[in-house]
Amino acid sequence: MKPLKNELPRSDDALFVFYDFETTQDTKVSDKTNVHIPMLVCLQQFCTACEMQDDIHVNCERCCRRRHSFFEDPVKDLLSYLCEPRPWCKKVVAIAHNAKASDSQFILNRAIFLKWNPEIILSGQNIISMRTQHLHFLDSVLLAHALT
């Protein structure tokens, strides 16, 4: 085990993304059960160059456009966007509010389909944290409870 360092981790090489899926529940699995199907994902992002910029409509010189939405194949499009090459970026931290409910499940299903091998931290059956490649997905609600 590595000893703890008395310093904050670097964030100048990270992109922070806040995302949310909107779903439909029209698809029946059985007589009593419907499945959530993502139909839209919206995201906002920032890096250390634009984190103090209040106006989300102002593009960043480093991370470019700071808000996006995808609706053709929302999960695939989100992951494709997060995996785009960014020479300055070593990690992407993607945070969803209450992701344990479904957002993390959509990401996990696609990661398995892509044969990625994510590292997952669970609280019961809820995904608190999922890491794969340079991506780190967090649930803001469960993370906030863990920190208090």
Query: Mind telling me the CATH class?
Result: Alpha Beta
Question: What structural category do the secondary elements indicate?
Answer: alpha/beta
How many DSSP H or I helices? 3
Shape, per Cα inertia axes: globular
Task: State the CATH superfamily name.
Answer: Ribonuclease H-like superfamily/Ribonuclease H
Helices and strands, in N-to-C order?
EEEHEHEEEH
Q: Total strand count, please? A: 7
- Any low-confidence stretches, pLDDT <50, length ≥5? none
Strand count, sense and barrel status of the largest sheet are: 7 strands, mixed
- The CATH architecture designation is 2-Layer Sandwich
- Widest sheet: strand ordering: 3-2-1-4-7-6-5
Q: What is the typical, i.e. mean, pLDDT?
A: 90
Return the domain count.
1
N-C termini distance: 25 Å
CATH topology: Nucleotidyltransferase, domain 5
Nearest-angstrom radius of gyration?
Answer: 16 Å
Strand content: 35-45%
Q: Portion of residues in helices?
A: 10-25%
